[in-house]
Amino acid sequence: MHQYLFFIGDFPIRAYGLILSLSILLATATAYFLAKQDGRWHHHILDMGIYCGLAGLVGARLWDVFFFDWDYYKYHLWEIPFVWQGGMAIQGGVILGAIVGYIYTKRHNIDTWAFADIVAAPAVIMGQAIGRMANLLNGDAFGRPTGGNFGIIYPPTTLAYQVYGDQPLWPAEVWEGQIDVIIFVLLLLFRTTNHAKGQVFILYAVLYSTARFFLEFLRGDYGTLLFGLKSAQLTSLTVIIIGIALFIWCGLYGERINEPKKHGKQK
Questions:
Q1: Is 144 annotated in some ligand binding site?
Q2: How far apart, in Å, are the Cα atoms of 61 and each of 1, 31, 196?
């Protein structure tokens, strides 16, 4: 892994920032393809990619600062913008990005739930998968020690090495990125069914939260918060419970995507 790809003079080009930017660009490209394929809203994708991408970065950083590392940042407020040090919580990014996306769809008379199903959910999880590559190259979002002679050994310049030294660590961020790709495919497959509006996005939230809950047992970059669980696990449990209830409700009472609609006489 390489934290620094190259230098322009004394200015470092960091793998973390480059790959993170690439994740936003490719998520936006995925969204454009899906919207173009559907025939709706593709001319809004670039604007939404910019707004939601920036909101996602801000939300991810603030979520990490206040929920994971506030004990440190309350004494180092000036370091909050230093995202290259690591510390981006995807849950916060998705929440703030979703809020901005909701506001955008309402202002432009876009069907929010249909847009979330067709475009947002598959594109977001693809962006998350690529984003985990940035974590690996930066040496953050790392796992805890495996206790054996297998695992990832991070270089001395990384936060993982500062915490655990040369102990082999579980590849938590690698596995999460791989699971995200699987979720991406499952969402595309589910879109082919006669599902109710909103169920694709809800399924994304439930599947990712389930994966994140169990992967957190392997994470070693922060401690527990309540009942032996980490803050990300508590958030995941909340999303899973609410998501399953909403998924069932939409399936029973929601509007079916392929359901014939009543129209008046065409002229």
A1: no
A2: 23, 23, 33
User: Can you point out the beta strands (E) in the chain?
Assistant: 4-8, 11-14
Rounded Cα gap, residues 123 and 29, in angstroms: 8
CA–CA distance, 66 with 224 (Å, rounded to integer): 15
Instruction: Quickly tell me which residue has 């996005």 as its tokens.
Output: 201
Question: How far apart, in whole angstroms, are the C-alpha atoms of residue 26 and residue 41?
Answer: 17
Q: How confident is the model at residue 84 (pLDDT cuts 50, 70, 90)?
A: low
Coil, helix or strand for 248?
helix
d(CA 69, CA 163): 14
pTM metric for this prediction = 0.87
DSSP calls for 163-231 = HHTT--B--HHHHHHHHHHHHHHHHHHHHTS-PBTTHHHHHHHHHHHHHHHHHTTTB-SS---BTTB-H
Find out whether 187 and 121 touch, Cβ atoms under 8 Å. yes
